[in-house]
Amino acid sequence: MEIRTIGSGIDVDSALDAYVKRRIHFALGRFSNRVERVSVVLSHENGPNGGMVKTCCFRVRLRGLPAVVIKQADFDVRSAIDRAVNRIGCALAIRLL
């Protein structure tokens, strides 16, 4: 399973990259034989009332099936990652099990 983390307006340092990979391996490890690639894009967006929110967009490419895409926004980048990982894990469980 190849994991790629991209930052758009957010600095993806080695600690944040390791955090993303650790969370993905924990949530998607049981599907690793069906997952080809996971792309994660972390970005800043304007939220409601003009506030800046962090957005985490997961795109999971599966063998023999269409990709699964989840987008999650939160005021903290790690919270957005956690919530997106939980959602993608549930989505893959529904699709693959």
The major beta sheet can be summarized as: 4 strands, mixed
Overall number of strands: 4
The percent range for helix content is 25-40%
Proportion in β-strands: 35-45%
Low-confidence stretches: none
Major beta sheet, strand line-up: 1-2-3-4
- What class would the helix/strand composition place it in? alpha+beta
Distance between the termini: 18 Å
Number of helices, where a helix is a run of at least 4 consecutive DSSP H or I residues: 2
Order of secondary-structure elements? EHEEEH
Shape: globular
Rounded to the nearest angstrom, the radius of gyration is 13 Å
Characterization of the model:
It is a single chain. The protein has 97 residues and is of the alpha+beta class. It has a domain at 37-91. 36% of the residues lie in helices and 38% in strands. The protein contains two helices and four strands. The chain has helices at residues 14-28, 77-96, and strands at residues 2-8, 35-46, 52-62, 68-74. Strands 1-2-3-4 form a four-stranded mixed sheet, covered by helices on one side.
Topology of helices and strands:
Layout: E1 2-8, H1 14-28, E2 35-46, E3 52-62, E4 68-74, H2 77-96
Parallel strand pairs: 1-2
Antiparallel strand pairs: 2-3, 3-4
Helix pairs in contact: 1-2
